[in-house]
Design brief:
Blueprint: H1 2-27, E1 71-72, H2 79-100, E2 116-117, E3 124-125, E4 131-132, E5 137-138, E6 146-151, E7 155-158, E8 166-169, E9 175-180, H3 183-190, E10 194-197, E11 203-212, E12 215-224, E13 242-248, H4 252-265, E14 271-275, E15 288-292, H5 299-308, E16 314-317, E17 322-323, H6 330-339, E18 345-350, E19 356-365, E20 369-376, E21 382-383, E22 386-392, E23 394-395, E24 399-402, H7 403-409, H8 421-426, E25 433-443, H9 450-456, H10 460-473, E26 476-481
Parallel strand pairs: 3-12, 13-14, 13-16, 14-15, 18-25, 20-26
Antiparallel strand pairs: 1-26, 2-5, 4-10, 6-9, 6-11, 7-10, 8-9, 11-12, 16-24, 17-25, 18-24, 19-20, 19-23, 21-22, 22-25
């Protein structure tokens, strides 16, 4: 009897529980939006990932790591000058950044599942010149109304006079809002949006913000004054393509032997000599330009002078104690440079030595500066079609170079005796360099002149001055020569 009474009672309780659950489900439905993938046209209340940090809040690069055996350059600065010099270095570095960086350096992040269509790369405008923004469009599902906005900071935006079913606010201003009940009409107006920079600058940029509901995209606008090309009219012979350049100091016997060897293989090629000897001699002969400098101006000052007078597309740099041989085939070097037009400098061998190096550089932070490692015999890969040639960062003092590319980098005349790699350090990121093993030049043998050798080997103070120069000019924390 007890059992028969308990069974109907339990059944009633189960029915009540099921009924309560059923009612509570409809009164407080489960939010399945937290369990399914987001729809790109979901209403604005849809939960989204937080936006990326604005550029001003992004962490700055940390300090670089000095290679083992590096010289810490700050330690070489005289203690009584360190504070003032570091302040001046910081000021110069900030001015360098102002000249070389713009908003185009800002990191941008592509939004996920965005209905916005916009240019992500390659949109370039001339300063203060109206230019249509290509491929602006909205791809959204049916709505009763669509509103998009565009915002820039270095220019103004314009579109056509709106159609009957559209509304435009901010035409000719830095923020443009377009509204329409027709998606087709809206996209027609977006296709006619133009951008005009309001400040003249030859190379800068802007960031455009494109918004629809809770979707936002940012894309770059490059503002650049186009440069007319500077082309060299090359003739059909080597004499109209290449000029030989050299610098001499107190070594006239070696220089004359070099010239004799040049004329053995290249009778009419132009040779430019920069000469800073204390007592100068006349260098006779056709197709020779002999420039007399004030005495002992130094290695890089002479290089600058010689290269400044070149009128051909290429110049071949040689030391004044080199010697042309049957392996000194300038035509072969020109052939490689013409086949690989991205190259700026192409080195060869001196005797049996094919000296070259790679430069490993970390920018570091703004306070301490960067870390540089010159790795001897470091190379990257062979040149396409030329397995005997490899991409490197720097080469020996026998190289063929594009005249205009080297003139843009230049040779620092502060470096008088301890200098060569420094040119390639200054040109890192500007010059494409390679080395080849199938072209070589000889090196003269014999006793060195005592007067020349007295100046040839610099005092330790010269080396220290060079490293101090790297600390300030190249904003380096440390350097290692390996």
């Amino acid at each position: 009897m007890a059992v028969s009474i308990r069974a109907p009672f339990v059944a009633v309780l189960v029915c009540v529980f099921v009924t309560c659950v059923f009612i509570s489900y409809y009164k407080c439905p489960v939010d399945f939006s937290t369990h399914i993938g987001p729809n790109r046209d979901r209403p604005s209340e849809t939960k989204r990932l937080p936006p990326p940090l604005p550029p001003s809040l992004l962490p700055s690069p940390g300090p670089c790591t000095c290679a083992n055996g590096s010289t810490l350059l700050k330690d070489l600065v005289p203690k009584n000058q360190a504070e003032e010099l570091i302040k001046r270095r910081e000021k110069e570095f900030q001015q360098h950044k102002a000249r070389t960086e713009s908003v185009l350096s800002t990191r941008l992040f592509a939004p996920s599942n965005s209905p916005l269509q916009y240019p992500i790369q390659g949109f370039k405008v001339r300063p203060m010149t109206p230019t249509f923004i290509p491929d602006l469009a909205l791809h959204a599902e049916q709505r009763s109304n669509y509103t998009v906005s565009l915002k820039v900071s270095e220019g103004v935006l314009r579109t056509t006079i709106p159609a009957a079913r559209a509304k435009v606010q901010g035409n000719g201003e830095s923020r443009l809002m377009v509204e329409s009940s027709s998606l087709e009409t809206l996209n027609e107006l977006l296709a006619d949006v133009s951008y005009t920079s309001t400040v003249y600058h030859i190379h800068t940029g802007d960031l455009a913000s494109f918004q629809f509901e809770d979707h936002e995209a940012v894309f770059p606008i490059t503002i650049k004054q186009p440069q007319p090309p500077v082309l060299y009219h090359m003739g059909t012979d080597i004499n109209s393509q290449v000029t030989i350049t050299t610098k001499t100091f107190l070594r006239y016997p070696e220089l004359k032997l070099l010239l004799k060897s040049i004329r053995q293989f290249y009778k009419d090629i132009e040779v430019i000599i920069a000469d800073d000897s204390f007592v100068t001699e006349n260098i006779p002969g056709d197709h020779i330009q002999h420039y007399i400098m004030p005495p002992a101006q130094g290695w890089f000052a002479g290089r600058n002078l010689a290269v400044s007078q070149v009128t051909t597309k290429y110049f071949l740099w040689v030391d004044d104690d080199f010697l042309f041989t049957k392996w000194t085939k300038i035509e072969e070097m020109v052939k490689v440079m013409e086949a690989v037009p991205e190259l700026d400098v192409l080195g060869g061998k001196v005797g049996e030595d094919q000296f070259y190096f790679s430069l490993i550089y970390e920018e570091g932070d703004e306070v301490e500066g960067g870390c540089m490692y010159r790795k001897s015999r470091g190379k990257f890969h062979s040149l396409p079609g030329y397995p005997q040639c490899s991409s490197v960062s720097g080469v020996v003092n026998f190289f063929l170079a594009r005249t205009d590319a080297v003139q843009r980098v230049g040779f620092d005349p502060q470096l008088k005796r301890v200098a060569h790699s420094e040119f390639f350090m200054d040109g890192l990121g500007s010059l494409m360099v390679a080395t080849c093993s199938h072209v070589a030049i000889g090196h003269q043998k014999g006793p060195k002149q005592k007067e020349y050798m007295r100046f040839r080997h610099p005092a330790k103070s010269d080396e220290t001055s060079k490293l101090q120069l790297h600390f300030f000019k190249n904003h380096l924390k440390c350097i290692r020569y390996g």
